[in-house]
Amino acid sequence: MTDIPIVDFGAFLNGSQEEKARVAKEMDDAFRGVGFVYLRNHGVDAEMVEQCFKWSEKFFALPLETKMLAPHPPGGSHHRGYSGMGLEKVSQHTYDAVELNKLRETPDYKESFESGHIHDNAQPNIWPPDSALPGFRSFMQAYFSECTGLIHSILDALSIALRVPEPGLSPTHSESLFQLRLLHYPAIGVDELKQEKRSRINAHSDFGTLTLLFQDAVGGLEVEDPHKPGKFRAAEPVDGTVLVNIGDLMSRWSNGRWRSSVHRVGLPARYRQVSRGAEEGNKAGQEGEDEIVPDRYSIPVFATANMDTLIEALPGCWDEERNPKKYEPVTAWGYVQMRMATLYES
Fold first, then answer.
1. Model-level pTM?
2. Which residues form the Fe2OG dioxygenase domain (predicted)?
3. Is 135 left (phi over 0), alpha (psi -120 to 50) or beta?
4. How many other C-beta atoms lie within 10 A of the C-beta of residue 131?
5. Could you read off the pLDDT of 47-82 as tens digits, one per residue?
6. What is the distance between the alpha carbons of residues 274 and 242, in angstroms, rounded to a whole number?
């Protein structure tokens, strides 16, 4: 079980002003409490989500030399294309070169493919040739557009929650500088994850304003307990929902009102139970000693504001005497690039 609330977003998309205000309040409560919320009736077609997972499986099943026809450029400033196993290492606010190299000794056991808006000149897309996977590029562009619409609807809800005057936060994301990410975590031994010989994704917070996440049924996503740092709770997949979380920029914008919660992907809860049995030497544990966690696929979409947007505490989120500004102003692009630079060796 998890403390992440489930909210019916359909009432915001199709409801009255009163219903919109109620949904915005429910989301505000979720982001103040844990930084995550599950949205039902979010408007992204379920069949389209299912097709995206199928396209993801097809792409990652291609031979490595084919995937490398769309290579992620060196470093983190151009975050597009295919990244192979161990190339990226996620960390949480670690900038020292020595510490980063130490973290990379336990690589993230995953591969990914990033794409974005077709008119994003700062980070142009890098696609495999159409002949390598016919239909892949056109579908991903259509799916990106679908998720972009949901992001702007969520921004409208957040604007109501924070009482941002019209036209709200949506115009600050008008250039749709978002990132659609396909993630594949290959099958891995339970012991490798349990003994931290490898990791799937290390503990981290997201950089941007908000993240949409569709995940398969394998599980493994965990969110840090806001009241007990270092203690993580499972964020299991919930059928028919998209998981939405606040990123660092939105946390700064709200002056810390909303949490950019640390999360990670590791050993799913059901395998941890088997592993405990192994330690106790019972029959279930003996059967689970060579247990394999199956392949996991997830599809996050990371939203960030237009590059030159100045992120500083919004009016109503701070007070000179009782709640002063907690963060220095920063441009959206400057902050994201600072965080991205730590992910890849240059």
1. 0.89
2. 176-305
3. left
4. 8
5. 999 999 999 999 999 999 999 999 999 887 899 999
6. 29
